[in-house]
Write a structure and sequence with these properties.
The chain is α/β, with parallel strands linked by helices. Helix content is about 35%, strand content about 15%.
């Protein structure tokens, strides 16, 4: 059996590396070596956080060895920015979990009314303007459909405003994980997309999500 790539795990907004530990443990049981990358999601912007990931890799990783990348929410956008800005690294496969690839309605509202809550991570990331995914990158996208979390308050308000002004809303466009709409996770350039019965944060401790993440990293597609 061929040796598996090291997996770099990247947490989301307001979180720290420990939040990725349950997923890391389950990937380790599947034979992956893991590293939980930490960054300052409020104080620093996406470019700074991508640069620090690059610096860590330069200090600790052999550039001749491919790496896999797994990001939760904002972490998935850092993956896209990192790949675009540092193409010298050999990227095996990537998986994003609950990442708003098309921008985040929840973040839009927070940026409008209380910008410090999303900090510098809104610009060039949660605003939907992150770098496009290069064609050669194989990325799998996992999204949740269980609407639990504080973000659902903003999404309910948004849905109410759309209905108030007579906007026609397709039922599938109302699905969300408590923070991110299902439609916001869809990336045309992705190799595969999978919706699962998990919430935005709950997906990080879900055994089936971990199984599907490892399966994509090994096979380039999700297990159906």
């Amino acid at each position: 059996m061929s040796q598996k790539n090291q997996v770099i795990l990247i947490h989301g907004l307001h979180h720290a590396p420990f939040i990725m530990r349950p997923l890391a443990k389950r990937l380790q049981l599947q034979g992956f070596a893991t590293y939980q990358y930490g960054y300052r999601s409020l104080r620093d912007g996406i470019k700074t956080n991508s640069a620090r990931l690059n610096a860590w890799l330069e200090a600790h990783h052999n550039p001749d060895q491919p790496i896999d990348l797994v990001g939760h929410s904002l972490g998935g956008l850092i993956i896209r920015d990192f790949i675009a800005d540092y193409p010298q690294w050999q990227i095996g496969r990537c998986v994003t979990l609950g990442t708003p690839h098309l921008g985040s309605v929840t973040a839009d509202y927070i940026w409008r009314f209380a910008p410090p809550i999303v900090g510098q991570s809104y610009i060039d990331a949660l605003d939907g303007t992150v770098a496009p995914l290069p064609e050669h990158i194989s990325m799998g996208v996992i999204a949740g459909n269980q609407p639990y979390g504080l973000g659902q308050l903003f999404l309910r308000y948004h849905n109410h405003q759309l209905k108030k002004f007579g906007t026609t809303i397709l039922p599938e466009n109302l699905i969300h994980d408590g923070t991110v709409y299902l439609r916001e996770t869809k990336l045309e350039a992705a190799a595969d997309h999978l919706m699962m019965p998990v919430s935005h944060t709950g997906m990080l401790v879900n055994a089936t999500v971990a199984e599907q993440t490892g399966y994509f990293l090994s096979n380039g597609k999700f297990k159906r």
